[in-house]
Amino acid sequence: MPDRAVRSLEFLEKSASTARVLNLSQIYKDHGHTPAWSEQPLFQTVGLNKTLLIKHRLRRNESDLFRGLRRVATKIVVPIDSQELKAGGRYVFFGQLDFAPTLKEVFGITPDHPDFRTLKLIDQLPSLDPFLLREQLSRAGIDPAPCYFAISEGDMQKMLTFVQHEIEPLVQLSLGETQATADSVARMAARILSNKPGDRMDGLREVLRLSPEQYEEGIFCWKGFLYFKWTLGSMAEALANVMSKVASIQPADPLDSEARNYVARGRVVVRELIKRAMAETRETMKVYDSAYSGLTQNGNPLMFRDFLLDAPRLFARLGEQLGAIQHVISFWKFRFGSKPAPPSVSELIDIFMDFETSLKGRSET
Predict the structure, then answer these.
(1) Greater confidence, 290 or 169?
(2) Most-buried pick from 23, 144, 171, 173 (CB within 10 A)?
(3) Top mean-pLDDT range of 71-85, 102-116, 122-136, 337-351
(4) Are 24 and 50 in contact (CB under 8 A)?
């Protein structure tokens, strides 16, 4: 079916991706001529490798498309015109009723195709944040070219430094304060961030009395929490700027009374929803902080064990919460970056509507 929601994404035509959108169409335009794109594609099917993947918060009228209860689904959008996203597109949700025949008809892939497996792995993620996407695919043995992941070396180093600081108390607990050197902290941080066999820190798994499967899944989600915690701290300034601009931005054309009322309402609602999403994100993060503190400061491994067992559920919740906020920041930065053209009234209303839908809970949408 035609996807009117792509109207609000037409401005991604010249950008890469956000935590909610993986713009494979733009990645193809930027890197399709390179050997890396051809030799290490995300999807083997060329048509699928030129789509847009969107983490879409399901509305009430869309919940009947699925057998089970879902809050977020992965939308696969095929642009009608790859050069003009505003022309719209056709889409299908991964996992919706009878979606497999659609994938076969449009892309020629079946459930036993490698691309189907890759889509399933992506669908399991709460957001399309490039760090999490790369980690998820890497642990499944899938290694696409770096062009699919907008992660700079500088950001990777900042992330590693943050993880080293975060796990220092755990290293001190394991080795003793006198033996916990900078090198030992760096080595453990590398193990935590590694997906290589043999880097699973079996000693910690045995202390926590977890099966290899429970431990592997828990550690992956722990990585996610560490990354989200770093992201939460690093985006504070950008988020404050967005909230300030939402309150003051003016459209290029005059406002009639109806539009004026809606824009005024949108300013208030979007700012309040951002504040609420941040508060909910911090509450979820506190679960991890309490469990980690219990392990490293109180010597109680049971709290951290319980956290790792519950981590997949908490990780999904945190990813949804933070992903919506990241989308707002990323989209605003792209659309209203250096010397932007003022938005039209209809565009500003569309942006506020998109943000409101992204930030609201399922029961409200």
Answers:
(1) 290
(2) 23
(3) 102-116
(4) yes
Render 236-272 in DSSP notation, one character per residue: HHHHHHHHHHHHH---SSPP-HHHHHHHHHHHHHHHH
Question: Which amino acid is it at 354?
Answer: D
Q: What is the pLDDT of residues 14-30, one digit of tens each?
A: 555 677 889 898 899 88
Closest CA to 141 of 157, 167, 121, 127: 121
Q: Return the SS3 of 181.
A: coil
Which residue type occupies 92?
V
Residue 290 has pLDDT above 80, yes or no: yes
The reported pLDDT for the residue numbered 6 is 40
Q: Report how far residue 151's alpha carbon sits from residue 124's, in angstroms, rounded to the nearest whole number.
A: 21
First and final C-alpha spacing in the chain: 20
Q: In what order do the strands lie in the sheet with 89-93?
A: 21-23, 52-57, 72-79, 89-93
364 phi, psi to nearest 5 deg: -95, -15
